[in-house]
Amino acid sequence: MPRPAKQACATENDTICCKGNFRHKLQSVFLQLRQTSNQICAPLEIEDYGIQTMPDVSPPKWHLAHTSWFFETFLLKPFLPSYREFHPLYSQLFNSYYNTIGSYHPRPERGLLSRPTVQQVYAYREHINEHMLQLIEYANEDDWPEVFTRTQLGINHEQQHQELMFTDIKHIFFCNPLRPRYRESSHKSCIPEKLQWIKYEGGAITQGYDAAHSNFCYDNEGPSHKIFLQDFQIASRLVTNQEMMDFIKDGGYQDARLWLSDAWDIACKLGWQAPLYWEQRDDQWWHMTFTGMQTVDPHAPVCHVSFYEADAYARWANKRLPTEQEWEHVARPLPIEGNLREQDILQPTSNSTNHGLTQIYGDVWEWTQSPYTAYSGYRQTAFSDFSSEYNSKFMSNQMVLRGGSCVTPSNHIRPSYRNFFYPANRWQFSGFRLAEDNS
To answer: pTM, whole model, 2 decimals?
Structure first.
């Protein structure tokens, strides 16, 4: 998928605050962000950094360089007069898809680049770090609101790529017959809550970004607007691996009546018989994890399924997927907590700690039945020089996911956050819960 880089909208108080202590805090946040990206790659061997297993996957080395290119292109070049490029060709090699910025290396060929070396990429990162700290420290007051807004965007952009690094590393390791381990770790499984159906009354509700949840949003989260919902009910938890096994056992992957036309064509062409990373060994299901191949935990949420599979399962269960409006409505009053990256589990796990609505945040990105389109009243706002490269050009043929996953940091997610992927994508940490109309 085109990586969904997006736009920022910061609060007025943040954008005008340019005093020393605030700048020093921003420097600290920036350095911590950059160190986290390095830490994600720390378990890798040098041979792992350049692998690209499919066009959707980018080599870890490319992620490290592209996030640096972002700061260089949109902050250092326009706002730091003394800045000099680390290498003149990096502007092409590590541009992802920004046509208005210039040409870029073909996405499916990122894995063909043996040079620059990993060492050179890390040197590039240090070069960017050094000059970004200078920019944050010394940007003049006239430039500061834009410098702050773009830096905040760059931080969120790199967080997004950190999540993609986890996603891509898992696919890279899965495609190796040795099925190497990213790390040594384990966690206890527990029996999930019994599924409940929680009813919500319809009516006029507000959808879109709310500053009470975060001082940052992407432009596709707005504008805040009123919509009308019908009465509905939603499952209290995510669909589990055991429930997906029941679908498989009942012939769900072979029943064309359950599948959309495009979905059936793709499932047949690619031979889908189970979620991505699942393998059957001696009548038992195994799957790839960051700790290598493990038996599938029947109680954990099903993961690495496409929208097409989620939709087929919902039809099989005589239910449907929630709309993104329904999902946001139920999520708004809930705290942002769950199996997110800070838990350091790095895979979906069962949840039996709460009664009522659970697993809204973390574990898996939840497919909704909503296509990724602009909200009523949407206008491209900040960064007019490249705003069309952020969200609007991707608002076609993709579906919305909500809630974050086990590799999403808690300070990167909020009720209004809209992720989006093509309906056949499976390598993301994606799952689903069910919904239905109130009768």
So the answer is: 0.93
